[in-house]
């Protein structure tokens, strides 16, 4: 009797493990990274609405570039959703100062845990480290124009319309240490880098 009980226990444990593994694979292949563990209906409805996501881009947002005094040599990008639907800021801004031929690298440590979600009227943020505070940057120049390009949802190729926020009349100084943060949900998270 004891051996039957042990066999049954092992069988049930193995079956439960296989079922759990199947659920995990399904959750990860769906791109959620976790299984739905009984989320409230409102959250599930919002998650299903995300399937028809709108990418935050120039035609549904307003982008403002503001030089910061602290931290030194930083520029704050503020993107406000001016559309009527929720939009998503994916990844980080691809910025082009003046006639630059390349996009500056992202600060990998600034990656948020979730995609920045903007309801109509809400703002998202990224900071741009313009130049080295200690003067160690090379190839410095004063840029008088800025283009900001938005990344699309992973798996999509349409990045949408970019933005051209105004810079101060005197321009901003950039050098080889130029880099950007990922988009952030809060201002404080953007400027700590």
Description:
The radius of gyration is 23 Å and the shape is globular. The protein folds into 2 domains: 2-37, no CATH class; 54-191. The strands form 3 sheets. The chain has a 4-stranded antiparallel beta sheet. The chain has a 3-stranded antiparallel beta sheet with strand order 4-3-7, with no helix packed on it. It has a two-stranded antiparallel ribbon with strand order 6-8. The chain is an alpha+beta fold and 193 residues long. Helices cover 22% and strands 26% of the residues. It contains 3 helices and 9 strands. The model is unreliable at 1-50 (pLDDT under 50).
Q: How large is the count of helical segments?
A: 3
| Largest beta sheet: strand ordering | 1-2-5-9
SSE string, helices as H and strands as E: HHEEEEEEEEEH
DSSP strand content: 25-35%
* Helical percentage: 10-25%
- Overall mean confidence score, pLDDT: 81
Low-confidence stretches: 1-50
Alpha carbon gap, first and last residue: 65 Å
Number of extended strands? 9
